[in-house]
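Researcher: Re-running this chain for the archive, since the previous output was lost when a drive failed. Same request as before.
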Amino acid sequence: MKFRNTTTVPKAEMQLAPMIDVVFLLLIFFIVTWNYARFETELDVSVPVAEEGADPQRTVGEIIVNVRKDGEIVINSVVITEDELLGKLKTIAEVYRDQAVILRGDKETAYDHIIRVLDVCQKAKIWNVAFATNRPG
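Model: Regenerated structure tokens:
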């Protein structure tokens, strides 16, 4: 006896729901990362111009310390004291030995304010400190 095969294999169709989920997750990721990157340039800090400045290799998790004209220390739009900065940097340096810190000092900031922040970085045992500058023009 010959039986007929009555079952047919359905055609493979493209599922749109998982694809839409992935697109929305990517969109959320880029919006969130853009928001965090915006913190470093929204302050009233005008860094000096350097002709020989180079684009450094950005590292994940680097801390951007802004020093305003009057010597205020700002991280992520929050004004902090030197003691709070020291505590924060010590905690981070214990976990990440090669923690990068970018120091953005206003061009009208007194040299003394920048040196105080560098001293705090040294006390926290952070050696990877870079200075932010602008390109001419």
